[in-house]
Amino acid sequence: MATPDLMTGFFDLERYSPLTGDAWVVLDCSDDTALGAMPDGVVIGVDRMGAMPKVEADRFDILLTAADNAPAPWVSCGDPDKAVRSLSLAIAANPIAATVLVEVLRLQEGLPFRAGLTLESLAYSTLLRSGEFEQWLKSTDREQADPARNPVSAERDGSLVSLRLDDSANRNAISAPMRDALYEALVNVLEDPSRPDVEITGAGKCFSVGGLLPEFGTAQDAAKAHRIRCQRSPSRLLHLLGHRADVVFHGACIGSGVEIFAAAGRCRARRDAWFQLPELSMGLIPGAGGTVTVSRAIGRHRAAWFMLSGKRIDAGLAKDWGLIEDIVE
């Protein structure tokens, strides 16, 4: 356990840096002292007694409590020490990506939506050239896949446009062709003078397993990839559509299969839906808008736990936290 009053100088803070020490620090929330300055590493607050004491939430990245059904920004975890051990292993495996993630989440607060997407994309492009991501590429067997030729189907009934992710052979992975097809379909909805609503669903057993793995690491120009992500961002269009956009999740909803669609004004899910953001295990951070969309839905502290832990959350917890607003049968 770190002693907060020791972490006031630059050299002291370097003890909690991915370059010169551990990339995280754990603070007991029963102690009313606070950090003199935020270190580069992940700042985890622990409430072992379940009392949820008053703390300066801005001084922490994650707040863990033994209390059940704790309100935001706390994460209920039963055994906070066990949760810390799990988090520390995940952070230690990819410390650079972990610290970049919490830096981005901290900076997101107060930024306009589009500026947040740009910040995330710049950080993501940086990590695409990191040693941690290179190690993941070398250690992962990524089978080739053949994306569907028409990965997004569209129908219109009156004032409602129904879009469906339609590549069930690849579990609706968000390939470049699917991203482009979704972007173009959403542009058509957004620019239609009749202002139709849009509902988005997924074909097959799951909504989407996220990015198509064989495409990871194939971009030769990281700067150009950044521009493509910013220019062709479905998240930005869903945000502009506001409550005209309705998403219904089901089954697995992973990575970009959550991040993009959490931007919609209305998010619902079937009871079998579950959500996961596993990018840290790849040496990356969410790159399809998740540091903006998910953190705005559930708050920065819970988003940091969700993204750093890589844990799955079910539809019930997603509703309690505000990632979705309703569960549909």
Describe the structure.
With 329 residues, the chain is of the alpha/beta class. It has helices spanning 10-13, 80-93, 95-108, 113-127, 131-139, 176-191, 222-231, 234-241, 256-259, 290-298, 300-309, 315-321, and strands at residues 24-28, 42-47, 62-65, 75-76, 152-157, 160-165, 197-202, 245-249, 252-254, 266-270, 274-276, 313-314, 326-328. Strand 6, helix 6 and strand 7 (197-202) form a beta-alpha-beta unit. Helix 4 (113-127) packs antiparallel against helix 7. The longest helix has 16 residues, at 176-191.
Largest sheet: spatial strand order? 5-6-7-8-10-13
Work out the count of structural domains.
2
* Strand composition percent: 15-25%
**Overall morphology:** globular
Overall pLDDT confidence: 92
Helical proportion? Answer: 25-40%
CATH architecture of the largest domain: Alpha-Beta Complex
Highest-level CATH class of the largest domain: Alpha Beta
Gyration radius, to the nearest Å? 20 Å
For this structure, the quaternary state is: single chain
Low-confidence stretches: 1-6
The third-level CATH topology of the largest domain is 2-enoyl-CoA Hydratase, Chain A, domain 1
Major beta sheet, specifics? Answer: 6 strands, mixed
What is the strand tally?
Answer: 13
User: What is the number of helices?
Assistant: 12
Topology order in helix (H) and strand (E) letters: HEEEEHHHHEEHEHHEEHEEHHEHE
Superfamily (CATH H level) name of the largest domain: 2-enoyl-CoA Hydratase, Chain A, domain 1
Give the CA-CA distance, first to last residue: 46 Å
Outline the fold blueprint.
Blueprint: H1 10-13, E1 24-28, E2 42-47, E3 62-65, E4 75-76, H2 80-93, H3 95-108, H4 113-127, H5 131-139, E5 152-157, E6 160-165, H6 176-191, E7 197-202, H7 222-231, H8 234-241, E8 245-249, E9 252-254, H9 256-259, E10 266-270, E11 274-276, H10 290-298, H11 300-309, E12 313-314, H12 315-321, E13 326-328
Helix pairs in contact: 2-3, 3-4, 3-11, 4-7, 4-10, 6-8, 10-11
